[in-house]
Amino acid sequence: MFPEIERTLVTRGQIAARVAEMARDIARDLKADLIRDGHSALDEDRVVLIPVMTGAMIFAADLIREMPVKLAIGLVTVSSYPGQSVSSKGAQLASALPDNLAGKHVLVIDDILDSGQTLALVREVVGAQKPASLRIAVLLDKKTARVREVPVDYVGFEIPDEFVVGYGLDYDGYYRNHPEIAVLSKSVLDAAEQRG
Asked: Does the annotation mark 25 as catalytic?
């Protein structure tokens, strides 16, 4: 189906198992926050999840279906890998963040932590609203040189410094629907590098 895929790094089964485990950990921590605040874990509208679009959409959808917590969702779009780029070009907000986060327990959800620029930007903008708590969950932590260090609370998988696609991650807008985390063939990446 995807002849450009060179190899799989994380299988569909591994993703499903780890996402369910992460959801349990996150739900436990959010419920503890609400109880510590003196609120019911089921009755208060105090939890807001912010998936970073578009890469985190599949991860976020699977994650929230495993979380038995009353929550709201507010999306944000950040541009950092335009077109056929295989390295970050710097993060810029491409949509507004929810503006009612003061006193809420916020979880930012992203597909991958690599340069750190996207999550650092989102963390700063969310933090300026004075949420009661702010945590970050990423599916993948790419071990590469960070441009900006960002504390992350929940990590699905650590991966080597390779350009990956699938499960929401794309290359030039494609491959998000590949059900596993995979590496594109060197020929695709070399062609992109030659184009500039």
From this structure: no
Query: Distance (Å, rounded) from C-alpha 2 to C-alpha 88?
Result: 24
Q: Catalytic pick from 29, 114, 172, 190?
A: 114
Banded pLDDT at 185 (limits 50, 70, 90): confident
Domain locations in the chain?
12-161
In the CATH hierarchy, which top-level class contains the domain 12-161?
alpha beta
Sheet of 164-165: strand order equals 5-10, 181-184, 164-165
Q: Which residues contact 157 (CB under 8 A, 6 or more apart)?
A: 9, 10, 14, 18, 139, 140, 141, 181
Lowest pLDDT segment from 25-39, 68-82, 160-174: 68-82
Q: Is the pLDDT of residue 87 over 90?
A: no
